[in-house]
Amino acid sequence: MSFLRLSDLDKVYPNGFRAVNQANLEIREGEFVVLVGPSGCGKTTTLRMIAGLEEISEGSIEIDGTVVNEMAPADRDIAMVFQNYALYPHMSNRENLAFGLKLRRMPKDEIERRITEAARSLSIEHLLDRRPRELSGGQRQRIALGRAIVRDPKVFLFDEPLSNLDAKLRVQMRTEIARLHKRLKTTMVYVTHDQVEAMTLGDRIVVMKDGVIQQVDSPMNLYDSPVNRFVAGFIGSPAMNFFEGSLVRGRFSCEGIACPADESLPEGPAVLGIRPEDLQVQPGGACLGEAELEVVEHMGHETMAYFRLGTQTGVARLSADFPGRPGEAVTLYARSSSWHFFAPGEGGARLLTEETKTTGNAEA
Amino acid sequence: MREPRLLTAVRHLVLLLFVGIAVYPVLNVLSISLRPGNRLRSTDLSLIPDNATIASYVQLFTEQPFLTWLGNSLLVSVLVTLTGVVLASVGGYAFSRFRFVGREFSMLAILTTQMFPATMLLLPLYILIAKLHLVNTFIGLMIFYTATALPFCVWQMKGFYDTIPPSLEEAARIDGCSRFQAFRLVILPLALPGLVITALFSFMTAWSEYIVAAQVLQEREMFTLPLGLKSFQASMSTEWGLYAAASILVSIPVVIVFVSLSRYLVSGLTLGSVKE
Amino acid sequence: MKRLFLFSLLLLAACSPRESDRMVTIWHQMTPAERVILDDQIALFEHAHPGIQVRALYKETEELRSGFQAAALAGTGPELIYGPSDVLGSFQTMGIVQDMSPWFDESRQEEFLPQALTRLPSNNDPASKELLQVGDRIGNHLALVINRNLLQETPQTTEDLVRLAVEQTRDEDGDGRRERYGLVWNFVEPFFVIPFLTGHGSWIFTDEEGSTTPALDTPEAVAAYELVLSLQNEHKVIPANCDYETADALFKNGQAAMIINGDWSWGDYLANAEIDAEVVPLPVVASTGIPMGPMVATKGYSLNINAKEEQAGKAMELVRFLTSAEVQRVYMWSLKTLPSRKELLDDPLLQEDPTLKASAIQMANGRAMPVVAELRAIWDSMRPSYQALLGGSITAAEAAAKMQRDAVDSIRKMNQKLEPGLGATLIKGLGGLLLALGLFWALRSLHHMIKDWKHNRLAYVFILPSLLVLLLTIVFPFVYNVILSLSNMSLKHFQDWQVIGFQNYIEVFREAVFFSVLFKTVIWTAVNLVFHVGLGLLLAVMLNGPVVGKSIYRVLLIIPWAVPAYITALTWRGMFDYEYGAINLIASQYLNMPMVNWLGSPFEAFLACILTNIWLGFPFMMVIALGGMQGIPQELYEAARVDGASRGRQFFSITLPLLKPVLLPAVTLGAIWTFNNLNVVWLVSNGGEPSDQTHILVSYVYKAVFNLYRYGYGAALSMVIFFLLAIFSIGFLKKGRATQSVYG
Predict the structure, then answer these.
(1) Most buried in the list A118, A219, B132, C415, measured by CB within 10 Å?
(2) What does the buried/exposed string (b/e) look like for B207-225 if buried means 16 or more CB atoms within 10 Å of the residue's CB?
(3) What is the distance between the alpha carbons of residues B198 and B154, in angstroms, rounded to a whole number?
(4) Do the Cβ atoms of C291 and C363 come closer than 8 Å?
(5) CB distance from B134 to chain C under 8 Å?
(6) What was the ipTM of the complex prediction?
(7) Nearest Cα to B189, choosing from B259, B255, B258, B266?
């Protein structure tokens, strides 16, 4: 039984722009779902429709069994954390936390109890009597989290809550949110354009592009079996390498590459996708071919090697002790199990072997 | 952070210079009000004239219905200010936050009301006021003043709301506010500097107008201050002393209003709410 | 909120209308001293007539005229108006005053001096005359006033006058600035030049009875102008550009031996203890032997066309009382006015009082002010050329010739009777079509709105009251004006005007002066706006930092906005005075700069208007900018400082862009207001002086409408102004994306 359900959701702006197109999504109670995608993909619009800040053009949204299409945000029993915190600047932080509760005419001592509890869990007790402007960015976002927590809503919505923080704080807040979810076990919908956040936080991830949901899956499934080239490229860092070529009789070939492929794959033009971490210079797996190193970045614990294979370029994630230098030639090998084949084009669908077809079906 | 000395000095120099320029002509008015013998011009530059006298001020309060006029003006101006602020604060909000049918048209239409030379409006306006039986009432006057001040006020408030991030009222709505509550509890307090300017402007519009007032008000006891002022004037036999004295007194309430409102022209209201 | 609302309701209830049928209203233009007597006499009258209440209301000359016209057109207005007879010509042509003879029979009329009663041909029957004004005094004339402390001799001829004036003009310390002048008067105003014209044997109209043909270009007039000019240029007995207030102040200060001024001013001079004033008749012109004769006007009461039966009867009862011998005697005794009743000519005071005696002689020498609408056109045509003459840009002969040309032209325009042309039918057809289109469009919008209502309910509720208030006040006047601009409403068609076509618009664009005035208006607007915004921003930035005494500065800087502009504009006019103005004094004494004849030359006078308006306008922009700056997060500046941005850079890349939403409406509306700002130009340049060279479009409209009664033309010009501004500001706002929010 789904707790939050989007059915055939559409958002069309008056100027004709279709921000969300036929979105269907079912979220279970207590689940942490992350909407991810490049900017303009419709993820924020979807979230705002759930919140009630954006009108629904077509389709419906159900929360806990009730269709909320026409319901005011105030009545949906949701809480939201905004990218820019959106704290009320003319109120103290305590008042910020209390605002929503007061509006619901909650007794004073209950408000006090909830604020104290939330403040303790977020370690913001000492900030409560200050104004938002007196706080640092990280502290403000904690207050904003606190404002959501005290409400004890059915659903938490997060709209890129960490993107205004610096890198270090972001990591810290990320784990905090993860811990929060573990403790509260409330349904959470989280929007981000950062795939690392998506992978680390989400029970399930929804990848969107141009208003269309591309894939909904657990982080590992998304990583292992992306449904199309877009998802494959979006998840993972550095991004997956793509080589355009063609499949002929169980072999994929393009300039500089020739490697075996599953015979059940359809013949014709195709794109080979290999994650940088699946490439290696030690012989093993399938040999891709001779590559010329262009840039070598030593990161300490690993090395990124940017190379050219024929006319196409790629990157390999190699061990820290890789000795190669730019201009040198190396032979690249790939673990054959991790090969992905896509139909040609930017969003080309994953080409399925007999075997993956069945697993794919099982998944659905 | 502290400013360099030089910069502080420059600040004060510029400010003092302009204070001088701003105040000097008004000191002249003050000097006329203290001058005996009813003279507008004087051939010497001294600001306190020889034989300075406060007779004009005394006369204003003892022989002229100055206090009645003051009361009338305050009544009209305060009511115009209240209606102006209320109407503009909601109107500007609608323009800033909603995309409704006829929005752009209404905005421009409101603006175009200011484009017609006022002198040509007097004749039809008088006819209108006469037909509505509003001659010699304050209501006719107030409707007109509100209408005069409103276009600026609405646009001004819209501009102010535009600088307030919409996520604040979105947060409020999710917190449990209706749209109206979000406006009143969250946005309105933040638009205070805008409201102050709107209030000041409405007040000034009503406070200093006399052309329409002269058409509408028909009784000396109903006069507003500017109209009372005008009655000290007659072609080539103006009572300049009274006129100047009254002008000085007329500006005092404006200064009081400004001083009491400028407390709200404080910095950083929206500060810290959001990270841009 | 609720309490506030209740409070306002209570206040509203407090200002309910007060009207009564027993009330008789008079609009008058009496001087403050006259008003005191009027009030006393009215009190006496009310005591004697318990059924009648009288309400006397002072109106300034122009206000009375335009206000009465509007009120009469609306079918209301005061029962009585009081003032000089010169306006009656146009009032009769417009048909807004009525014949008083039903209440004022022959025998009663017999009691008055003939010139005290104004009778003009009836509109319906030109052969019969109607009694339109009953005068209670005769005068309004100029005479010479001598400060006997300085000068004992009384000039008998203009030669004496010049000689004595030259003697009395003194520069005792030899610094080139005179401490005393021989003869002063409102030198720049043509009304004051009339005695010189009559003394030379000239007049403003041709000599036939009731003539309205200008006769301004005569050799006698040229001689008169040359004499006047010599007083300024050759003899230097009068300060340059001497206006009424300067002359008045000089004489009251004992810095002028003689002044030419009207009967309204004498009381003030006689009462002044510092000078020993005596009124004497103006001298005889030496070259002709004719005494200088001022214009003499009757002042009296006229009856509104809308005053019906009983009301008119009550009003006339009042007129009979106010023109009675007793009342006239009070005026005569306290204010030295000349009576209009025959019986009062024998009053002992008239024989004994030196001022009244001189006044009576002067009046006898004077010429009656013509009671014709054309007189206004004469003044308007004389003023520019006369001032150009004084300014030295044309000769006396050229000035006289130009006056004549302009007068003929103005009178033609004023009396123009436009008849419906082909355009009229076209307009009526088009009007119907437009109405239908408008209705269709409105219905369609309404339909859309109803569909949209669900989504934006609050917006419609929020916007509705504002729109209603504006609709109520603007739509009717606007539509009225559109129709007026297509009509022939003018002096000759005041009540019976009709739609005639596009003639008025054609006229607007045909007049070459339109484009030069438009150009000037654009300059005026641009310069003012740049300085308003520039100074406003500068001061706001200065005030926005950590300044000691910030609140005091802030208050002092808004003072130009706080003090009524009417008086400060006049103060500025005083400060621009050539000899005595603070600006020239400071410039020449402390800054070693040459004196500038601010108000005497067109460019400088225009500059003076601009300077004054800049002064009036910068505090407003400062307040706007200050308010706007409060919304800019300080963090942005901190960030910019970390990035190493200079203060200038911070201003242009943070302050200015973020002020935009707040500043844009202020700038747009500021431009519109400045474009349409009549007051400052009118007050500082005294209605376009010198020579009508300082007009901007609105003052030009004002002049066309109020001086020449060209309502249709004025409305058309206003529509042109309206469209110019509409195109400008909509373009400006679209470019500035002002209707869009920063946040989308």
Answers:
(1) A118
(2) bbbbbbbbbbbbebebbbb
(3) 8
(4) no
(5) yes
(6) 0.85
(7) B266
Tell me the average pLDDT across B163-190.
Answer: 91
Strands A32-36 and A187-192: parallel
Handedness of CA C419, C421, C423, C429 (dihedral sign): positive
Which positions ≥6 away from C160 have C-beta within 8 Å?
Answer: C153, C283
Residues 5-44 of B with CB under 8 A from C: 8, 11-12, 14-15, 18-19, 21-26, 28-29, 32, 37-43
> How close, in Å, is residue B57 to chain C by CA atoms?
16
Residues A320, A323, A326, A330, CA torsion sign: negative
Provide the strand spans (E) within C108-157: 117-121, 129-139, 142-147
Do B45 and C582 count as a contact with CB atoms less than 8 A apart?
yes
Chain A CA closest to residue B274:
A84
| Class at the top of the CATH hierarchy for domain C21-137+298-368 | alpha beta
Q: Give the pLDDT band (50/70/90) at residue C698.
A: confident
- In A76-235 the beta strands, taken as DSSP E runs, fall at 78-81, 155-159, 187-192, 204-209, 212-217
Q: Does B4 touch chain C (CB under 8 A)?
A: no
Token representation of residue C735: 């470019």
Identity of the residue numbered C195: P
C631 contacts B163? CB cut-off 8 A: yes
Sketch the domain layout of chain C as residue ranges. Answer: 21-137+298-368, 142-293, 422-502, 507-736
pLDDT tens-place string over residues A195-209: 889 999 999 999 999
C481 CA: distance to closest CA in chain B (Å):
8
For C507-736, CATH number out of 3.30.1330.40, 3.30.420.40, 1.10.260.40, 1.10.3720.10 equals 1.10.3720.10
> Which amino acid belongs to residue C588?
S
**Is B101 at the interface with chain A, CB within 8 A?**
no
- The region that residue A210 occupies, defined by phi over 0 for left and psi between -120 and 50 for alpha, beta otherwise, is left
Provide the residue-wise pLDDT of chain A in tens; the chain has 364 residues.
568 999 999 999 888 899 999 999 999 999 999 999 998 899 999 999 999 999 899 999 999 989 999 899 999 999 999 988 889 988 999 999 999 999 999 999 999 999 999 999 898 999 999 988 888 888 999 999 999 999 999 999 999 999 888 888 889 899 999 999 999 999 999 999 988 899 999 999 999 999 999 999 999 999 988 999 999 999 888 889 998 888 888 888 887 777 777 778 888 899 989 999 988 888 877 788 888 999 999 988 899 999 998 888 899 999 888 888 898 889 888 876 778 889 988 888 888 776 666 554 433 3
Is the CB of residue A79 less than 8 Å away from at least one CB of chain B? yes
Instruction: Give the chain C residue nearest B245 (alpha carbons).
Output: C567
Separation CA C607–CA C27 (nearest Å): 37
Q: Are strands C295-304 and C80-84 parallel, antiparallel or unpaired?
A: antiparallel
pLDDT at C120 over 70: yes
DSSP states of C470-538 as a string? HIIIIIHHHHHHHHHHTB--SSTTSSS--B--SHHHHHHHH-HHHHHHHHHHHHHHHHHHHHHHHHHHH
Which of chain A's residues have a Cβ under 8 Å away from the Cβ of B170? Answer: 51, 53, 73, 80, 82, 86
**Residue C372 and residue C363: Cα distance in Å, rounded?**
20
List of residues 6+ apart from C171 with CB closer than 8 A: C177, C178, C179
B190 touches chain A (CB under 8 A): yes
The class level of CATH for C142-293 reads alpha beta
Tokens of A297: 């970045």
Q: Does B170 touch chain C (CB under 8 A)?
A: no
Q: How many CB pairs under 8 A join A and B?
A: 94
What is the chain B residue with the closest CA to A102?
B176
